[in-house]
Design goal:
285 residues; alpha/beta; UDP-N-acetylmuramoyl-L-alanine:D-glutamate ligase; eight-stranded mixed sheet; 42% helix; 11% strand; binds ligand NPW; binds adenosine-5'-diphosphate
Length: 285
């Protein structure tokens, strides 16, 4: 794939995906499969918590731990009673989906800062992106275009220009983390300047909540990988992020195909993830 400046940006492929999805093994227990911790959802956006938790379960998490406001927690448990709300150890965090930095409590800010200063890999979305630059934990940031521009402003960078690839590489270098820039063509840059593109989806994906689903998918992939190898380097994290975007896009296509090519909702995307993972892991005949 050649971009508008004539540079070649590699497209993430199914074989790349296969190398980043952990198949369950007979000696696994739930903890060996990877535990995802989610601090998502707010009173204004409780549904985002449900969407992310659902997506993490559907992407093969051994356990999902959820912490958030009471209303969001009740909705999460109503949809997924499998979810654990007791505090405990996790192999990956997902922060910020369905939250707003402007209304975050000082206590929650302090908890998020502690997580971002830790060793466990973190997927940073939506209302937690303002804290991402201070973090030292291995991080995957998942902004859409407006969030990307806000992040760049906080880093002292100009708004992204038409060359999205150069912009996202610059952002990843400045923030010292993997940055996944969402769009019809999703770009993933690591802090060393490696860039890949994911073109897996359908325009039907442009619907509320699909970004919350993506964060949950990536959280589950990172937790599974970290359960095997606790220190994930940025290249590996970028691969897991691109894999999440590929699965998300293909799940959307599958969900739409199941509806005669018609519209889909964010939950439809999450529901289609298992079949996409199953097809990726199926032995080649
Ligand atoms: N189910 C859930 O719980 C969901 C929860 N979600 C959560 O919501 C949070 C905020 O995420 P976001 O992407 O909406 O935030 P953001 O980048 O600030 O965009 C705001 C911009 O949009 C624009 N705008 C608004 N209305 C518009 C209109 N009718 N037509 C055109 N433009 C319009 C508005 O422009 P303005 O009205 O100011 O002119 C402003 O520029 C986040 O935490 C996310 O996770 C979502 O995932 C959805 C499902
Ligand atoms: N035109 C499009 N074609 C394909 N995918 C799209 C398109 N527009 C958005 N997407 C995808 O839809 C998702 C939207 O995420 P986001 O903007 O965070 O939505 P939300 O905040 O409502 O969850 C992203 O994964 C993005 O890549």
């Amino acid at each position: 794939m050649t971009d508008r400046n004539g540079r070649t940006v590699p497209l993430w492929t199914e074989s790349d995906v296969r190398a980043h999805v952990r198949a369950p093994r007979s000696d696994d227990d739930k903890y060996r499969r990877g535990v995802v911790g989610m601090r998502t959802g707010a009173d204004a956006y409780p549904g985002a918590a449900v969407l992310g938790v659902e997506a993490a379960w559907r992407s093969g998490a051994g356990m999902v731990r959820y912490a958030g406001p009471r209303r969001a927690e009740d909705l999460v448990l109503a949809r997924r009673p499998e979810t654990v709300t007791a505090v405990g150890r996790v192999q990956a965090w997902v922060l910020g989906s369905g939250t707003d930095a402007a209304t975050r409590t000082p206590e929650e800010t302090s908890v998020l800062r502690d997580i971002l200063a830790g060793d466990v890999a973190v997927v940073v979305d939506a209302g937690a992106l303002d804290l991402a630059p201070e973090g030292s934990a291995p991080r995957i940031l998942t902004p859409h275009a407006r969030e990307h521009d806000r992040l760049r402003a906080a880093l002292g960078l100009a708004a992204a220009d038409a060359d999205r690839g150069a912009s996202v590489v610059e952002t990843a270098r400045a923030v010292g983390a993997v940055v996944l820039l969402k769009g019809a063509r999703t770009l993933v840059a690591d802090p060393d300047g490696t860039l890949v593109a994911v073109e897996a989806g359908t325009p039907w994906l442009a619907t509320a909540g699909t970004g919350d689903v993506l964060a949950g998918i990536i959280g589950a992939l990172v937790a599974a990988a970290a359960a095997d190898q606790p220190r994930l380097d940025p290249r590996r994290l970028a691969g897991l992020a691109a894999t999440g975007a590929w699965l998300h896009g293909h799940a959307a296509r599958r969900a739409s195909t199941e509806r005669a090519g018609g519209p889909i909702t964010a939950l439809d995307v999450a529901d289609a993830v298992p079949a996409v993972i199953g097809a990726v892991l199926a032995p080649v005949a």
